[in-house]
Amino acid sequence: MNEKVRVKKAKMAGGGGAAPAPKQDELHPHPVKDQLPNEEKARVVQTILFVTGINTLFQTFFGTRLPAVMGASYTFVMPTISIILAGRYSNILDPRMVKFRHIMRGTQGALIVASTLQIIIGFSGLWRNVTRFLSPLSAVPLVAMAGFGLYEFGFPGVAKCVEIGLPQLIVLIIFSQYIPHAIHSDRHIFDRFAVLFSVAIVWLYAYLLTVGGAYKNSPPKTQLHCRTDRSGLVGGAPWIRVPYPFQWGAPSFDAGEAFAMMVASFVALVESTGTFIAVSRYASATPLPPSILSRGVGWQGIGILLDGLFGTATGTTVSVENAGLLAMTRVGSRRVVQISAGFMIFFSILGKFGAVFASIPAPIVAALYCLFFAYVGSAGLSFLQFCNLNSFRTKFILGFSIFMGLSVPQYFNEYTSVAGYGPVHTHARWFNDMINVMFSSEAFVAGFVAFFLDNTLHRKDNTTRKDRGYHWWDKFRSFKTDTRSDEFYALPFNLNKFFPSV
After folding, report:
1. Taking 80 as the threshold, does the pLDDT of residue 31 lie above it?
2. Which InterPro entries would you find in this protein's record (predicted)?
């Protein structure tokens, strides 16, 4: 389990004060990941892949219409772990079957309630009214930290098995950056298929290390990260299985858990806004009109609703990894993403095939993250070209927001790793979750600080308007003021007549 999840798990551990005696509601069961049989883990992976494919199709057809892949979000980990540690499940003695299903029903109920937040904010146009005040200056920290803020999942994951992760990182850079410039080709084979080539080579290398006995006498932790036969997903996955709603049973609802999940949903909304902006940048589309962004948020809320109905144990947001993949491959095609979504649904039904891809060693995936997240972060930095970097106002907002976006979550994580619970530690666990999840997100903190300062600090000055780059986006604040909006964002099947964008 990676360090960030371990830290977030510790955040859920306590109630209030300096060091109170543990209560029944604060018991620490063994990690559910270790208790689950392979069959149940495979079912969860299949369900996530299936719903991800559906949500991606919805987003590309009816949402923003950008080539954005939807995926599971780390933001929902904290409230999900809180549900796992809830006291009402501590009396269930069979953790393998009954307890797991009850926990899944609890997460389903919380996700169903949380989905209403994004659905209402998106389709009512509230988010459109908020993002109208977003300028290139305030977008820089938001988008940059959407990528750079995930640094915990990069090289720390590579280092867990450096003999696999580091070769993957080196081979990926060679295929994507060096070979395309050394071997000129009109087909762009190496840069577009760099991920497939590098993963295949290093995965084969890792398999040879495994069958050759390189990890035969290694510690269990090393074997878990390095061996290619430890996940158990392939053996536990059925050949054919179609995920269906309420497959874990009827959802259960708890008010505190629902409120905590709603805050996580709002944080995911802010993070996905930054990722949507990065996707539009790499897809060579015009800047997102606020009405289109609001529409995408509404459909993302429907995606979280589907997560709750099918039981994925986590919510949906825009995939930062695939936003970075757009930059690496330079293929910003909506049709390609829709075909990819079809493959996700296909492989989720044919469980064995999907499990093969899901069982890629984690250090290989972490090496991919090193490039993908870096591309998304650099998309945020690219908006600096619209800002006046000679202005001390600009320097203050940029520096302070990015610094706080790194410093505040770092404080929350360090406090948790030492004390075993977060800085906000009251007797109300749901309130703890609400505060801790907000200030543990680098993108949320940086984006909120930048947005607030940019819209309150000498905003009405005409010189300030130019310094923040606001005038560059004026023509894109309405759907109808730019003729290219129809090309990128118009709904299919002539639906714009019935659902016009403003």
Report:
1. no
2. NCS2
